[in-house]
Every structure is written in C-alpha cells, then in structure tokens.
C-alpha cells in the first residue's frame, strides 16, 4: 500500500511498464512489466506472461509517475539492436533504471506496435 506513511525510499522505487489497454472507470488499466535488455542503458522488452500482467484500478492511478517517450527498435539502428524491443528516452527515464546490466532476463521479448509506456511506483 502506498500512502502518507510509506517510507520515502519506497516511493522512489520505479518499475517500467507498458500500458496494454485504454483506461476505463470500471476496470482501470492493464500493464505489463518491461524488463531491461542486457548490455543496454535504455532498451527494454515487454513481459507478456499472463501472471505478470497487472491491473491498476482507478484508486491506484497515483502509482503512475509519468509517461516515458519511446520507440520500437527495428533492428536496423545498429548491428546489435534487438528488433521489437523498446528504447526509452533517457531524459525521461529514472536514473536508477539507466544502469546497464550484464545478463539478460530469461523472459522472451515480444514485438509490439505504437504502445504507451509509463513508469509506476511499487
């Protein structure tokens, strides 16, 4: 739970997500986690395991911090550009998410088109 009694360090923990559908008053919005791609600073891939999809209800919309501009990589940008992955704008990405990781997550990346990406708190 996130309220005025939540410690400040928890409020500053961010997760990147992709918004999967339009917001409705009744259902809120569904989001899928974005996982960091190994060897890149601002490249992520969507995790579509059904158990990982979260539903953010109207009452929890405050969990969204801001929308991060992004684009889908075509694989033509440079030799190691992973096709279908999402590259986020580094100026809008929280600093703690800019660290390059050395090993990839086991989840398989999926291609997507013109998706909205956001940052949520815990």
TrEMBL record:
Q: Spell out the InterPro entries in the cross-references.
A: DUF3444
**Keywords on record:** Isomerase
The record ties this protein, via Pfam families, to: DUF3444
Q: Where is the signal peptide?
A: none
**Listed GO MF terms:** aldose 1-epimerase activity
Q: What class of enzyme is it?
A: isomerase
Top-rank lineage group of the source organism: Eukaryota
Enzyme Commission number(s): 5.1.3.3
Q: Does this entry carry the keyword Protein biosynthesis?
A: no
DUF3444 domain residues are 1-77
Coiled coil segments of this chain: none
Please state what the protein is called. Aldose 1-epimerase
Recorded source organism is Opuntia streptacantha (Prickly pear cactus)
């Amino acid at each position: 739970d996130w309220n005025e009694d939540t410690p400040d360090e928890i409020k500053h923990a961010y997760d990147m997500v992709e918004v999967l559908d339009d917001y409705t008053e009744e259902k809120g919005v569904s989001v899928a986690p974005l996982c960091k791609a190994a060897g890149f600073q601002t490249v992520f891939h969507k995790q579509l395991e059904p158990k990982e999809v979260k539903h953010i209800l109207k009452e929890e919309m405050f969990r969204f911090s801001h929308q991060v501009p992004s684009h889908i990589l075509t694989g033509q940008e440079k030799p190691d550009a992973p096709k279908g992955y999402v590259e986020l704008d580094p100026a809008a990405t929280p600093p703690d998410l800019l660290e390059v990781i050395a090993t990839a997550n086991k989840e398989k990346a999926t291609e997507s088109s013109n998706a909205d990406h956001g940052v949520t708190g815990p």
